[in-house]
Amino acid sequence: MYSTTDSQQTHILSLLKSNFGYDEFLPNQEKIINSVLNQNDTIAIMPTGGGKSLCYQLPALAIEGTAIVISPLIALMKDQVDSLTANGISANVFNSSQPQEEQQEVLKDLKNGALKLLYVAPESLPLLNDMLSSIKISLFAVDEAHCISSWGHDFRPAYTRLKTLKQQFPEVPLIALTATADRPTQVDIATQLAIPNAKKFIASFDRPNLYIDVRPGQNRNKQIFNFLAKRGKQSGIIYCLSRKSTEKLAATLKAKGYKAEAYHAGLTPEERNNIQDNFLNDRSPIIVATIAFGMGIDKSNVRWVIHYNMPKNIEGYYQEIGRSGRDGLAAHTLLFYSFADVIMLRKFAEGTETEAYQLAKLERMQQFAEALSCRRKALLGYFGEHIIEDCGNCDICKTPPKYFDGTLIAQKICSAVARLREQEAMGMVLDVLRGAQNAQVYDKGYQNIKTFGVAKDIAWRDLQQYTIQLLNQGILQIHFHENGRLLLTPLAKQVLFEGKQVQLANVVKEVEKVKAEKTT
Ligand code: ADP
Ligand code: ZN
């Protein structure tokens, strides 16, 4: 058993160098690795490209036995195994699509302790059950752990089987990794995996090299041609909502002489592999894809990402733009949004089991698209990271709207949220601020609280827009799993108690102005 000593540090640094060829750790990697080596259950939340794999691969080398890695995508597992093998580390995959002989081979190696890491699809895990209890397991790694949460945006039913891992193997440390988890999803991961005492590490989600640009979706094709005309042979991804639109847009781009390919789940695996290969090798630098594309793609020189349609939530959006600029060099991300997208996305959500939740996330995405303050602040605030300074690298920072001193309004809104004990969603908060005389208000006795009616001089629509601006500035947050009630963030406490100044924009005017400017 390890304790975090100098010799442990020296040991993991030498493993880092000798097995992976790196001289130093990326942020949080070392702490996470030490947590696992000290046999803690661990939750690692890191942005795409943050270096999650190393967080279990290195401990797998340092601890006796085989690490069992549960990963959702077979293609992704193969890539990982190939690169491990290239580094001289014995690793393999086990899944149901393998030929029988290959499976037998893997099982033999597993039994003989010849593997340092075994990647398993969650669906195939039950097939290994007997074997696992008879070998030495160093650790369990659950990659893309948000797939276990029915609250998350990529729920995979087979992940729920992982609930029993901890019961079955209480002594084996379990590390869960994900790039996309809001606070409640993080809590859900711990609950679902039965690791209530897990040590949690949250790396910064900031990707300062990504320029964040959002525009109304009028004349999208024309805007895209202008965009591409300045970007030569740079590699980029265009995300569309439907298969059909990927094909249509790819054809349009090809007709204009661009090397662009459509990619979606309707293609055969061979076709998809080919397209992916051509993209990775820059033979076809532009890919027009549905969100089926990208998970686990490790291409460092993607210089831009365009969302032809608005994504259904901020998690997906941030993950997708995060596929650009992984080399740390400047990259441009461009989101188009239109009301037509919102309507289509609403239709997708309707009738699903988690309809209300999905609609709330969609609405938040739309609010982000219409933000009038630093985009990065809004995104990071959404993930619970509160930055103070505007980023200087987004469309709003570049051409900010006209602001006025909205401190008093912000104080009123925050104070209402506080007086309602953070139990109410936006509609009720606004009613209370406006002093609405309706049954819902009276049923709860809210006409008696101190902030009742303090903002009755502001029109409902304006007040709503100011509240959305506070969400985008990371001062308020929505609890998506509990009726969308509004929560105060640490920044709200600064507004209420430390005299923090808040700038607001006169939304209706500004939104119209921005729309007019950007589409011309
Ligand atoms: P994630 O799974 O978090 O998206 P990866 O594990 O794929 O990230 O790592 C992203 C990239 O960073 C990979 O190319 C990986 O080889 C590289 N990387 C990981 N750790 C380090 C390190 N300590 N130093 C330099 N590069 C690293
Ligand atoms: Zn900014």
From TrEMBL:
Biological processes per GO annotation: DNA recombination; DNA repair; DNA replication; SOS response
Domain Helicase ATP-binding, residue spans: 33-199
Reaction catalyzed: Couples ATP hydrolysis with the unwinding of duplex DNA by translocating in the 3'-5' direction
Gene Ontology MF, one: metal ion binding
EC annotation from Swiss-Prot or TrEMBL: 5.6.2.4
Chain ranges of the Rhodanese domain: 195-271
Cofactor entry: Mg(2+); Zn(2+)
Keyword list, A-Z: ATP-binding, DNA damage, DNA recombination, DNA repair, DNA-binding, Helicase, Hydrolase, Isomerase, Metal-binding, Nucleotide-binding, Zinc
Family stated for the protein in its record: Belongs to the helicase family. RecQ subfamily.
Protein name per its UniProtKB record: DNA helicase RecQ
Gene symbol of the encoding locus: recQ
Residues represented out of the complete protein: 1 to 520 of 695
